[in-house]
Amino acid sequence: MFTVTELLEPVENDLETLLGDLRSLIGAGHPILQAAAEHLFSAGGKRVRPGIVLLISRALSSSGELTPRHRRLAEITEMIHTASLVHDDVVDEASTRRGVATVHSRFNARVAVLAGDFLFAQASWHLANLDDLDVVKLLSRVIMDLADGEVKQGLFRYDTSQSFETYLEKSYFKTASLIANSSRAAGVLSGCPADELDALYQFGRQLGLAFQVVDDILDFTGNDQQLGKPAASDLASGYLTAPCFYAMEEHPELKALIKTEFNQEADLEKALSMVRSSRAIPRTLELAETFARESRESIAWLRDSSYKQALLELPDFVLSRLS
Q: Which domains, ranges and CATH numbers included, belong to the chain?
């Protein structure tokens, strides 16, 4: 199976350029914020989201070339993603991400919140300067969705009465909206017709949902290094994900443990063993595989190229994180 670096190889040079451009876009004048941004952009992220924008942009181009507006869209996508991570880390009180100290643990929570706000503001400014109202609407929606997803996640902690649809909606807001809407935006800048724009959106939406569902499986099966955070931290925090919902169907007594917020010492371990001994993980894997298949199918119409091939292999890469 490919690594993400190998998958993104067709746009490797574009991503190198993107990193340099991001540093200059953040600009001087705010030494602490600039230090925080530098720290973020050098933290060794995989750059999957801007990579997808660049791959789609080149796949849609008759010459395979990128326009400056497509490059800027990829940069804005990475800014929005990075800003959301900074805020997530503050809310989750995470001390590291991908083995690197988070902004609030390296500086402080105030600087982290301001750095996230600063990046969202920068993204909005550069978005407005693309002078394309449809793209502005798409990416503004993403910023709203990210906030909405974070609020919903907090509101529904330890709530066993929430529906599976609520979980999927929250997953869309937090993970899939950015990939879906930036994929569609790349098509808008390429002048694609409505049916192709819908297909690009569907590709990003289903890929994002597959990614989130795989993450939710890894919370129960992965190790700290794979996850970039402590294993079982979602369940411990009261965030109910697909494996939890499926396990509650088989073990109704799991609901009582969750409702009492694992207040007895062995409660969390009991809950984990219920999830792991049920059919919850295999059923969640089937859900991820469905999303991955739908993602692949939605871009079959793209003309053949190394960029299309990389996009088609992304859903399998997402699933391969479990092997």
A: 4-312 (1.10.600.10)
